[in-house]
Amino acid sequence: MRSVPFLFFLKNHGKKGILDDFSGLLIKIPLISTLAFRSDDYFINLKSIKVDGKVVSFDTSLLSIDSGAVGGAKISTFTPYAVLHSAIYNALAKDFAKRAFDKKMIGLAPLAPFGARFNTKNVATTKNAGPAVPTMDLELRGIGNSSSNTYWRICGANSMARIKRNVMCLGFLDGGPNPVT
Asked: Structural domain tally of the chain?
């Protein structure tokens, strides 16, 4: 594997107004590529997933990319929703739904291709982050020799897909036991 360009995101600084210098708010995420992948495939070095601050329990070895270029967490501009291994998806959907129910969200029966579906009736909309749903944090391994990890926060605007006027779904899909990365 080789490191390739970095992806940058702005942290939520909690201040209103325009900042003169926002360089301290940037999150640097290295993108990973291997010679076995097509040139448009990039992966992130994902360590864990949290929902509302709680670690989602699953076999984290599924996040590793093996020598045959199987596994891992891919960033794609071709797929509108994140496709996960069944074990990861099932754990994430279960934990997300539990936290959603804690927020008094109303669950609906699954509708393909989505598994976690909700009525928007009891869901407020925030000014900058979309629907007020449980937040997800992707914990990424430190860069180089750094032992510190970086968190990439995903709020409702980026975790939910509105499929009808009053219906939204978790924007992650079950890719089965051998998802194509």
From this structure: 1
Q: Which residue range forms the structural domain that includes residue 122?
A: 45-174
11 found inside a domain: no
Using alpha carbons, list the distances in angstroms from residue 1 to 88, 140, 181: 23, 17, 15
68-117 confidence digits (pLDDT tens): 666 677 766 677 888 888 999 999 999 999 999 999 999 999 988 898 99
The string of pLDDT tens digits covering residues 161-177 is 999 999 999 999 888 88
Q: The pTM is what?
A: 0.79
CATH number assigned to the domain comprising residue 134? 2.40.70.10
- In a domain? residue 140: yes
Tally of CB atoms within 10 A around 18:
6
What does the alpha-carbon distance between residue 134 and residue 132 come to, in Å, rounded to a whole number? 7
Look at residues 97, 117, 126, 128 and name the one whose alpha carbon lies nearest to residue 161: 117
